[in-house]
């Protein structure tokens, strides 16, 4: 009689290939699916999960996260890990912690704090810094207990600063010698398991800003330096490039993605595509562009931000608007007292009235008119739950006066909530997600922890776009949530549940699948006891990573079977 490590019995299998669901048992040995069939006896396995008809689907592959730091203290990369995400991608947008010289560590941490809002104190307490080179970083990552698999880009900001020095990386292109060194280090990174490299390139228009308010190195780089690195991937016939070169309502450098694709002849993940009611042609223009690129033979995909989302914040924690000069000035005004003082300054208020453009706010949480006053001092209780435009109408003043007035009156403690800046139309979302050159994702997990959590994107899509609207089949969505990113990122043997594939899966009850929409949970679980916002699901009954159960009925088993994943032909483990 066959002896399996794990048997999942009596499930409704949606295997991620797009094929119709089937009733099945799944037998697993050594982290690999050994047999899919019916009638396998429970006593043939060391452990048995009785599905009783629940859906079992491939673990979600979450390509766009910033768990580079959080994985060091949270092996399950929550919120993503709670929602059935079994693989996460790090190093996105060119941000990361390797390679890094010892005297640059503080600078790297301050960059991560300002661009991705990972608290500096948590970084100082949570990172061991027992690495310098990218291979040493990968060695550290492999040694970490992990409840999810991790795939890492080589972050281009880190590479440029390591080779050129911080000041030079911000003001000039690489020399011939520096360019050669960066090519060598990219080859070295790919040899030890990097899946490619990542950058942002938006010049002054990026919402990511350095801690001094200036653009990041890759945003102002001589782009030929990136093209040179793209040629390394072409020579290797391996790897993918993630490129943040577009912000809704802001700027676009699609030509950068195009040339990276031409030089590399590898997949390019363009960021970002999302549907907006106020910009109805925005996502369609990107879809038309993707079609044009395909006709030219270029393999460009767009990363989707396509789920119902919101932010809860005060102005001391929020930093999604640094690409807008007015708000960049405000964000860098100083401590809460300094921000409150600026918010009450007559000259600044006059500037706000003159410069404020609602359409520029589309990619920054939405226009001020849609912000909700969430919470403040006792004297403000009467306006809690009202939109700023409602308060402005009642007071007879511009909405900018209301926003900054509430900041000033509360001493910068007032909390706001954004009102779903991404379109809530499932039809528009389907236009985006339904395109064959679009990759769902963009949880941004691990980033923006004081005002946002996005690990629920897959749960929301299954609810909103399939169960509740009927616009997608679950078979189609699971193919897009797992198989498509696995293929684009070059993660062989992942993303589908077929015999011989890795046993990364999760089990859920589609009728009970849910999460607390528009109300984050606050947890004090960062290093040092600091807090973050999170979002847990309900209805997810089990999660399995590499054949080992990591969650049962929402509770962690304590198992950490995750591994580092490389792109095709790269080492893993």
How many helices? The count is 17
Distance between the ends: 30 Å
Return the average pLDDT rounded to an integer.
Answer: 95
Measured by DSSP, the beta-strand proportion falls in 15-25%
Annotation, overall tally of beta strands:
24
Global shape: globular
Structural class category:
alpha/beta
Measured as a percent range, the helix fraction is 25-40%
Outline the biggest β-sheet.
9 strands, mixed
Uncertain residue ranges:
none
Radius of gyration: 23 Å
Walk me through this protein's architecture.
- The chain is of the alpha/beta class.
- Strands 1, 2, 3, 4, 5, 18, 21, 22 and 23 form a nine-stranded mixed sheet that branches.
- The radius of gyration is 23 Å and the shape is globular.
- Helix 11 runs antiparallel to helix 14 (399-409).
- Strand 2 and strand 3 (32-37) form a beta hairpin.
- Helix content is 31%, strand content 19%.
- The two termini are 30 Å apart.
- The model has no long low-confidence stretch (mean pLDDT 95).
- It is built from 17 helices and 24 strands.
């Amino acid at each position: 009689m066959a002896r399996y490590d794990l048997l999942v019995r009596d499930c409704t299998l949606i295997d991620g290939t797009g094929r119709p669901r089937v009733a099945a048992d799944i037998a697993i040995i050594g982290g690999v699916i050994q047999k899919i069939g019916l009638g396998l006896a429970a006593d043939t396995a060391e452990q048995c999960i009785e599905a009783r008809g629940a859906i079992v689907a491939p673990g979600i592959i979450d390509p766009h996260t910033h768990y580079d730091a959080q994985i060091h203290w949270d092996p399950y990369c929550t919120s993503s890990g709670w929602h059935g995400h079994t693989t996460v991608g790090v190093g996105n947008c060119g941000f990361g912690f390797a390679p890094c010289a010892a005297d640059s560590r503080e600078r790297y941490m301050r960059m991560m704090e300002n661009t991705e809002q990972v608290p500096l104190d948590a970084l100082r307490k949570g990172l061991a810094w027992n690495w310098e080179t990218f291979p040493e970083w990968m060695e550290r990552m492999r040694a970490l207990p992990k409840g999810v698999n991790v795939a890492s880009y080589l972050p281009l900001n880190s590479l440029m600063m390591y080779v050129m020095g911080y000041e030079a990386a911000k003001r000039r292109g690489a020399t011939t010698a520096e360019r050669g060194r960066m090519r060598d280090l990219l080859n070295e990174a790919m040899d030890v398991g990097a899946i490619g490299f990542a950058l942002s390139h938006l010049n002054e228009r990026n919402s990511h800003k350095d801690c001094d308010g200036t653009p990041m190195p890759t945003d102002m780089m001589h782009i030929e330096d990136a093209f040179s690195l793209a040629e390394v991937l072409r020579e290797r016939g391996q790897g993918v490039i993630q490129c943040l070169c577009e912000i809704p309502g802001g700027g676009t450098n699609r030509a950068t993605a195009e040339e990276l694709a031409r030089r590399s002849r590898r997949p390019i993940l363009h960021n970002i595509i999302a549907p907006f009611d106020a910009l109805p042609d925005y996502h369609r223009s990107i879809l038309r562009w993707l079609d044009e690129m395909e006709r030219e033979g270029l393999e460009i995909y767009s990363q989707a931000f396509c789920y119902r989302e919101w932010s809860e914040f005060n102005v001391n924690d929020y930093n999604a608007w640094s690409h807008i000069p007015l708000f960049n000035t405000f964000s860098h005004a100083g401590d809460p007292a300094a921000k409150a003082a600026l918010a009450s300054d007559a000259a600044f208020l006059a500037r706000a009235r003159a410069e404020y453009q609602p359409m520029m706010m589309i990619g920054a949480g939405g226009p001020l008119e849609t912000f909700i006053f969430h919470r403040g001092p006792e004297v403000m209780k009467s306006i809690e739950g009202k939109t700023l435009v409602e308060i402005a109408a009642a007071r007879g003043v511009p909405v900018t006066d209301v926003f900054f007035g509430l900041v000033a009156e509360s001493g910068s403690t007032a909390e706001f909530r954004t009102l779903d800046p991404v379109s809530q139309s499932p039809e528009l979302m389907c236009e985006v997600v339904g395109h064959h050159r679009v990759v769902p994702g963009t949880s941004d997990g691990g980033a923006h922890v004081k005002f946002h959590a996005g690990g629920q994107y897959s749960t929301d899509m299954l609810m909103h776009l399939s169960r509740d609207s009927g616009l997608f089949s679950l078979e189609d969505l699971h193919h897009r949530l797992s198989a498509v990113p696995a293929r684009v990122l070059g993660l062989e043997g992942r993303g589908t549940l077929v015999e011989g594939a890795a046993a990364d899966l999760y089990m859920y009850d589609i009728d009970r699948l849910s999460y607390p929409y528009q109300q984050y949970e606050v947890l004090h679980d960062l290093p040092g006891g600091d807090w973050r916002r999170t979002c847990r699901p309900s209805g997810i009954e089990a999660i399995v990573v590499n054949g080992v159960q990591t969650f049962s009925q929402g509770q962690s088993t304590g198992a950490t079977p995750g591994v580092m994943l490389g792109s095709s032909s790269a080492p893993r483990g």
